[in-house]
Amino acid sequence: MRRQMLDDLRDQPLTTGALCTHFADIDRCTVMQHLKVLEEAGLVIAERRGRERWNHLNAMPIQDIHDRWIGPHAAAASARLARFKQAVEADKA
Known about the structure:
Blueprint: H1 2-10, E1 14-15, H2 16-22, H3 28-40, E2 44-49, E3 52-57, H4 60-92
Antiparallel strand pairs: 1-3, 2-3
């Protein structure tokens, strides 16, 4: 559910009410509890505009994780695949 919330916020900020409509099978209080966890983790930034609470995705922590963990692993995997391709092509020749 929290991943879906982050996906929903990826393209544009949404009000809490709009997010609640995406999760019609659970109550508003539960949606707000999940948003609170995401906010405490630094993944969502909440902004009050009058009576509305707008939720924005904070992509920086996700980018930091990518840069620290996923990027180097993806580069290593690509290098292994390139070597494998070269070895297969060498065997064919």
